[in-house]
Design a protein that fits this description.
155 residues
């Protein structure tokens, strides 16, 4: 039996990429419901141009819970790509937006601890994974007869 190494490595690599992203977002999403995590992310969120409003209107615990709900929803959406590719594609894009927000902490958080900088920089790789997942899911949706996905206005 001959193995098509291109196909095997692409399929296996894609599965590892997708489901490790799912595990990251599921795990960190669940952590957002803890007091320790809520306090740990507070300085990041309070200085974020994207998220500071959330802390202003709700406080650290609720802000962290909201972020946790979004992260868990992204994880679940990414996980169901075979069954709901369009949903999964939008979950991938939402995940990408969340990761861009996280990466922005590198420039918006004053006196960011170097260890935390090193931890956040991994999100650049996760951003690539999220965009790849979205692309794969959009392709599957199109393959199944869905409409074309484009940034161009419909004619």
């Amino acid at each position: 039996m001959r193995w098509d190494l291109n196909l095997v490595s692409s399929k296996l690599g894609g599965a590892i990429l997708r489901y490790s992203l799912v595990l990251f977002f599921l795990g960190f999403g669940l952590l957002k419901f803890t007091e320790a995590e809520a306090l740990a992310i507070q300085p990041l969120g309070e200085h974020s141009p994207f998220l500071s409003w959330l802390w202003a209107v709700s406080g650290p615990r609720i802000a962290s819970d909201v972020i946790g709900v979004v992260e868990i929803a992204c994880a679940l959406g990414l996980a169901v790509w075979r069954f709901a590719p369009r949903l999964s594609a939008y979950a991938g894009l939402t995940t990408a937006v969340a990761l861009v927000m996280t990466l922005s902490f590198l420039v918006t958080t004053p006196q960011l601890d170097p260890a935390l900088q090193s931890f956040i920089i991994k999100d650049l790789t996760l951003l690539g994974a999220a965009l790849w997942c979205a692309g794969e899911a959009f392709a599957l949706a199109r393959e199944r007869g869905g409409r074309q996905f484009s940034l161009q206005p419909a004619e």
